[in-house]
Model the fold of this input.
Amino acid sequence: MAKKTAKKAAPKKATAKKAAPKKAAPAKKAAPAKKAAPKKAAAKRQPNAAFMKALTPSTTLAAIVGATALPRTEVVKKLWAYIKKNGLQDSKNRRNINADDKLKPIFGKNQVSMFEMTKLVSKHLK
Done:
């Protein structure tokens, strides 16, 4: 093992120097204003036409969302409104949906995840 050598620190001398007063920074000249590049009109995002296409729900799905033709996004919105209104989300895992008598023929089982729901619902849209 190597021996450690301890060096004693020299005692610090008391300094009587005062801190020099800070000088004020010279005032900066205003930079000449740059011309802003002409802004392009913000292009509004176009929704995908496949999502906005009106689809007719099957008779079992029409019992929940209505019989009129709706875009896929509106069908999912109405389904979620029905699920929340009837308290069908699983209490422990909120991502799961418990099927009631109207949803069971659409889902084909007692419980589905929210991601699986859209896949199963698309089979009921034409």
